Amino acid sequence: MPHARCFRATKPNPKDQHNFTDPESAHYRGDLVRQISEAIVHLNKSKKLHPVLICDEAQLLRHPALEQLPLLLNFDMDSSHYLTLLLAGEPLLRRTLSLQMHEPLRQRIAVQYHLEGLSREELDAYLAHQFKSAGVSQPLLDETACQALYQATKGIPRKVNKLVMTALRLAVARKLSLVNEGTLLDATTEALL
To answer: How far apart are CA 46 and CA 44, in angstroms?
Structure first.
C-alpha cells in the first residue's frame, strides 16, 4: 500500500500574509510557485508519489489565490499530471469559477460534481444511522418534525445536523422525550435557518 502524507494547512498568521497586488509580493509569489512546482515534480519523479491538494471551503478563496492554482497544474506538465487538485465548496464556488477571470482554472477542471441535498427517504435513513451511531435505538423526532426538518434544510446534511442538535437541546430543556413539529420550528428560528 502506498504511503500517504497529509499536510494540513492552518490559519495563516496575519503577519505572514502577503499583499498580492504589491510588486514585491509578486516576486515572492513567483518564487513560491516555483518552489512548490519543484517539490511536486520531485515527489513524482524521485519518490513516485502523486500529490493531491485538497482545498475544502474553496468558496472562501480570494480571486488572487484562485488565479494562482493553474500555475500549479500546468508548469512543465501539459502532457503529464503531477498534481491532483480537489476543490470542495458551497454553490458560491461554482459561481466564482464561472467568472471570466477564472477561465484558465476552469479549463483544467476534468470532473465537476454538485451534491444535491438528501431526498426525504435518504434523510430518514441518515437520521436513523446518526442516531444508531450515537447509541440511540428509538426515534427522537416524530413524523411531523421530520417533515419540517426536510422542508427547512432541503436535506443538506450540514443544516440537518445543526437543526437536529438545536431541536434536541430545546426538547431536553422542555423535558420532551420526542421532538415535535413546534419544537423543530422553534429550533429553526434559533438556528437561523
So the answer is: 6
